[in-house]
Every structure is written in structure tokens, then in C-alpha cells.
Design brief:
Length: 352
């Protein structure tokens, strides 16, 4: 490749990233319209879960909070679940937090899937995009989805002087409040994010690994500036999902801004004190949609942890298995239907 062509390609990638990498996914992160969302439903489908049904508990976190019951605007209900929202005050901002719980409690101290919204997305749309309610219905866990700050983005980049919000502190408050108000098992909180919010999950794991029992990053790798700062206090399961046709967070990295997906996988092997390089397996295709999935996984890691990388050949900057059918930004690329990231990440992080 000539120098001119290389510079032109790099410039194009950089332009795409400048337009969307600041949020690592841009405003709607592609599938956010996630239609099918019924604004009149939300706390649906049978029964009440312990603690959730009242949702007017008036519980307060260290930053203050308020709750509301009734329909959750924009949320497509999942059978067998109850949903409610709560406002938690932290750092001078009130943020909405969505809770999706089993309609019938299966545990006095349920585990938690802490799912962070994509840039400028709402908790309800994130739940619709990922069909996260299935985790509550099928596994008895609580799904907790907090909104980002008023900027619409998560402060995942410690080298960015404009990111002054203490999102690590906010998430610590959300977790502590869930433990005190609803008696979830705070030792079994598993973080998951998409694009910018996936980078935020990484930052939490770097800064406060005591908060998470596992981490899942969809359409994110690792920021170059984070590597020397990332010193997790313990090893926890970490899994990446990356598409080879992702132009927002390129699979092969972006200049000195983002590492490649294999590099991020390698770094987390180091953080988790893994031995060996792991093994690669192909995931059988369920449909013929132009994508193929391979799983690289290393389970020989400290503290019974593991590191995994799902490579989606032909996949874009999308959530694997999303079925909303709404793509409002062509550059986000294809969404594979040969992998359900929501179920895969839960099964991975909870298997250890």
C-alpha cells in the first residue's frame, strides 16, 4: 500500500472515529431506535418480585434517591418480569436507573447484570436492544440499567480532561444502593456495556475490580492510554465481542488511540495472570447471514477467572443477536444472528 493510500485510509478511519468515537458509537449507536418499544407497558407480565413490586420504597443511597412504580416508558415487556425505575442522585445529577426483576423471586439475594446504556441511549432502549429481560426471566437475576450522565456519555477515558464525571463512583453507589434497598448479592454483580459503555465497564474493572464479578465488552477493545493505568485488584472473567467490519472501533485497532481486539484480549490475559494463549473454536452457524463467529478462550487464569474473545467475521459495530431490525447509521455494519451476545456473556461470566 502506498504512503498516500495508507494515510488516506487512516484519515478516513480517524474521521469516522472523531464523529463517533468520542461517544464510541455516537448518538444512537445504530440500533437504538429499537422500535417495538411500547411506552404503555413496562412493569409487565405477571406477579411481583420481592422488593420490586412496591418500587416506592423511598430508599435512599448515599447520593439520595427516589423510586416510581407503574409502566416504564419505552420498555418492551419481557414475560415473567417486573420492571420499575428509580432516580439516584450523585455528583449533583439525578440519573434514572431501570430495574428488571423476576416476577417470582427465585433467590433472597439474586445476582445482578449491571448493563450500561450506549451513548445517549436510554435504559429502556438498551433493555430492548439486548432483550436483557430474559436474564431476569430465565436466570432469576436482577437486570439493572443506569443512564449515563447529562452528557449522554460515560466517562471512560481517564486521559480526557473534559470527562470530569465520576462514573466509577456513581456505579459504586448504584451497586451499594441495590444491595441495601433490594438485597441483591453485591458479590455477584456482572458488568456489561456496548461501545462507549463497554469501555466504561473496562475502566470500572481497572479501577474497582472489587465491584464486579465479571465484565463483558461489546464493540470495544481497550484505549491505549488506559493500558499503563489499568491495575485490577483481582482477576475476574472478561469477555469481548468484536466485529471484523467495525469502522467505529476497528477490529485491528486505530492508530495510537485504540488497541486491536486481539491486543485487548492479550492484555486481559496479563491482568488475569493467565497461562498459555487459549484455544480457538468455531461457533456453528445458525443462519446464513454473511457472518461467522469464532471463540478464543483461555480458562487457565488466576482466581478461577477466564478471558474470551468472540470474533464476528463480517460483523459491524453492533450488538450480536439484536433483532430490532432498526439500523439508522449505515457505517455501523451488519448484525450477526449467529450469536446472542446477551445470553453468551451471562453464561460466560457466571460459569466461574
Amino acid at each position: 500500500m502506498s504512503g498516500v493510500t495508507f494515510r488516506g485510509t487512516a484519515a478516513l478511519l480517524l474521521l469516522v472515529s472523531v464523529l463517533s468515537l468520542a461517544a464510541c458509537g455516537g448518538g444512537s449507536s445504530g440500533d437504538d431506535a429499537s422500535s417495538g418499544a411500547s411506552s404503555s407497558s413496562g412493569s409487565s407480565s405477571g406477579g411481583s418480585s420481592s422488593g420490586a413490586s412496591s418500587s416506592s420504597s423511598g430508599s435512599s443511597s448515599s447520593g439520595g434517591s427516589s423510586s416510581s412504580s407503574g409502566a416504564v416508558s419505552g420498555l418492551t415487556p419481557t414475560p415473567g418480569t417486573v420492571a420499575f425505575t428509580k432516580s439516584i442522585s450523585f455528583g449533583g445529577q439525578n440519573r434514572q436507573v431501570l430495574y428488571i426483576t423476576p416476577a417470582t423471586a427465585t433467590s433472597a439475594n439474586p445476582p445482578v447484570l449491571l448493563m450500561l446504556t450506549y451513548p445517549e441511549g436510554t435504559p429502556a432502549f438498551m433493555a430492548n436492544l439486548t432483550r436483557a429481560g430474559r436474564i431476569a426471566a430465565n436466570y432469576g437475576a436482577w437486570v439493572i440499567i443506569p443512564a449515563a450522565s447529562l452528557s449522554g456519555k460515560w466517562a471512560d477515558n481517564p486521559a480526557d480532561p473534559l470527562q470530569t464525571t465520576d462514573d466509577v463512583g456513581f456505579l459504586a453507589t448504584v451497586i451499594a444502593d441495590a444491595g441495601s434497598s433490594y438485597h441483591v448479592d453485591t458479590s455477584k454483580v456482572y458488568g456489561a456495556g456496548y461501545s462507549n459503555s463497554a469501555f466504561m465497564v473496562e475502566r470500572v474493572n481497572c479501577d474497582r475490580a472489587d465491584l464486579l464479578a465479571g465484565a463483558a465488552m461489546i464493540a470495544a477493545t481497550e484505549r491505549d492510554v488506559v493500558v499503563p493505568l489499568c491495575k485490577p485488584s483481582r482477576a475476574v472473567p472478561a469477555v469481548f465481542f468484536n466485529g471484523t467490519d467495525d469502522l467505529v472501533v476497528p477490529y485491528n485497532g486505530l492508530l495510537t488511540i485504540l488497541l486491536s481486539a486481539p491486543q485487548a484480549y492479550g492484555n486481559w490475559q496479563t491482568y488475569n495472570s493467565c497461562t498459555g494463549a487459549g484455544a480457538t473454536n468455531s461457533i456453528p452457524a445458525a443462519v446464513s447471514d454473511g457472518t461467522a463467529v469464532q471463540l478464543l478462550q483461555n480458562t487457565a487464569c488466576a482466581n478461577g477467572s477466564a478471558v474470551a474473545l468472540y470474533t464476528i467475521t463480517g460483523g459491524g459495530h453492533t450488538w450480536p443477536g439484536n433483532q430490532t431490525g432498526i439500523i439508522d447509521r449505515a457505517y455501523l455494519g451488519p448484525t450477526t444472528q449467529n450469536l446472542d451476545a446477551t445470553l453468551a456473556l451471562w453464561q460466560f461470566v457466571t460459569a466461574r
